[in-house]
Amino acid sequence: MDALRDQDTDESGSALVDRIGDCDPGIELAEFRAAVRPLLADLPRREQTVLKLRFWDGWTQSEIADRIGVSQMHVSRLLAATLTRLREQLEDRDAPGWSDDPDMLAGPDGNHHDDLGGPHREPGTTGTPV
């Protein structure tokens, strides 16, 4: 590494080693999103809704419970079971999300989706979603 620092400096005094790129931390997140997208699409609609409201829209478990007509404890159990199942599937490299086939990332309509759709509400707000 010192050799890279000592030679190949440009007129600004910057050594080659200082100009070499680094690993992009967003790559791992992109791989995770690509792996989890088909797993989320395979969940029952109710579980998709619970995950979306909790993690994308920032709703509390009590708010979700009121929305879907169950107790807060039931929402807690749904979240725990769903997240456990997703973790197990993500650890299984044979799961659909780990495929190199870009068509595996498409939804049932053949389009690529960035989120689960449905009503949206700003995180931390209360009341009826828009």
Structural features:
single chain; mainly alpha; 130 residues
Can you tell me about this structure?
With 130 residues, the protein is mainly α. 50% of the residues lie in helices and 0% in strands. The chain is built from 6 helices and no strands. α5 packs across α6. The longest helix has 20 residues. The termini are far apart. The C terminus is likely disordered.
TL;DR of this structure?
This protein has 130 residues and is mainly alpha-helical.
Oligomer: single chain
**Can you count the beta strands?**
0
Instruction: Point out poorly predicted stretches.
Output: 104-123, 126-130
- The rounded Rg comes to 22 Å
Q: How much β-strand is present in the residues? A: under 5%
Please give the count of helices: 6
| Sequence of secondary-structure elements | HHHHHH
Largest sheet: none
Whole-Å distance between the termini? 56 Å
Helix content: 40-55%
Envelope shape? elongated
Structural class: mainly alpha
- Mean pLDDT, rounded to whole units? 74
